[in-house]
Write a structure and sequence with these properties.
Oligomer: single chain
Number of strands: 0
Number of domains: 1
Number of helices: 7
Length: 121
């Protein structure tokens, strides 16, 4: 049952990722910094357009765009992979901390929750 729920969550996130929805305004502003700034400036100077983001995230995103290109799918790849990993780790956490019916309920909510899918796809 739990494996099915995790696979359902993976499928929903993959579907959302493959749909390639348009970036939201805040994502566009961060993406402009990632694509437009050299790596050194990206990691050592304030971002343009009043944006903030963790330096590790900026580094991984910049490396991905350098290696794979500057498409929206590339910019969403790291969050997508984190969403998949988060789903698997949440299952393990639920199994360790919850009992009985609460485990599949918690995993189901994580697997099919629209905010989790939206931000992990």
């Amino acid at each position: 049952m739990l494996t099915f729920l995790v696979l359902l969550g993976v499928a929903l996130r993959a579907w959302g990722y493959a749909a390639n929805p348009s970036l939201w305004l805040d994502e566009i502003l961060v993406a402009r910094n990632i694509v437009g700034l050299p790596l050194g400036d990206l990691l050592t100077r304030p971002l343009y357009l009043d944006q903030v983001a963790p330096r590790g995230f900026l580094l991984l995103e910049k490396l991905a765009t350098l290696a794979l290109g500057e498409s929206e799918l590339v910019l969403r790849l790291f969050p997508f992979l984190c969403g998949l990993l988060g789903l698997v780790l949440f299952r393990r956490l639920a199994e360790r901390t919850l009992d009985g019916w609460a485990v599949p309920l918690a995993v189901a909510l994580c697997a099919i929750g629209i905010p989790f899918i939206r931000h992990g796809a």
